[in-house]
Amino acid sequence: MLNTQSLVRHCLAASLMLASFMAPPASLATTKSYSAPADTVQLKASALPGFAKASVCYACHSAEYIAYQPPTAARPYWNAMVNRMKKVFNAPVQEEDIPEIVDYLVKTYGNEQPNEQPK
Ligand code: HEC
């Protein structure tokens, strides 16, 4: 069991560690200007009903994440992705809209694109 003295020592060590972690050396603390590239990638337009429904995907990020997924990604991958967005990040995706959104994603970005060879 910890006695008071060792507890104090323990806390002191922890806060010293934290302080050195939080205070960067002066060289790192100088202000640098940085402009991020515009994060404005839009979803590819489509006549599929899932296209309009996928606009909920903009709530947190642009379509850039979606556009960077491998074109070999199959339906179960997209289904898992949409479910992950819903369950992990609380994306406002209606359960009944998921099949159409997944259908749009796999046919627009995944391995069911019209010009894609069947795998
Ligand atoms: C509530 C916020 C939110 C919404 C809405 C949302 N996402 Fe995400 N998404 C995130 C976050 C946060 C990340 C990055 C974190 C990560 O990668 O774990 C992410 C990352 C991604 C990625 C990158 C790959 C990955 O696993 O990180 C893809 C693809 C993606 N989202 C697709 C979608 C699609 C498709 C939709 C619409 C159905 C959607 N997102 C809606 C929060 C959201």
Give a description of the structure.
The protein has 119 residues and is mainly alpha-helical. It is 49% helix and 0% strand. The protein contains six helices and no strands. Helix 5 (75-89) packs across helix 6 (98-108). The chain is extended, with a radius of gyration of 24 Å. The termini are far apart. The mean pLDDT is 83. Bound molecules: heme C. Heme C is lined by residues 54, 56-57, 59-61, 65-66, 69, 81-82, 85, 89-91, 93, 101, 105. The site of heme C (HEC) has 18 residues, from helix 4, helix 5 and helix 6.
- Give the biggest beta sheet: none
Q: Quaternary state, please? A: single chain
Q: Count the helices. How many?
A: 6
Name the structural class.
Answer: mainly alpha
Spell out the helices and strands N to C. HHHHHH
Apparent shape: extended
* Terminal CA distance: 62 Å
Count of individual beta strands: 0
Distinct small molecules: heme C
Helix content: 40-55%
Low-confidence stretches: none
Radius of gyration using CA atoms only: 24 Å
Q: On the 0-100 scale, what is the average pLDDT?
A: 83
Strand content: under 5%
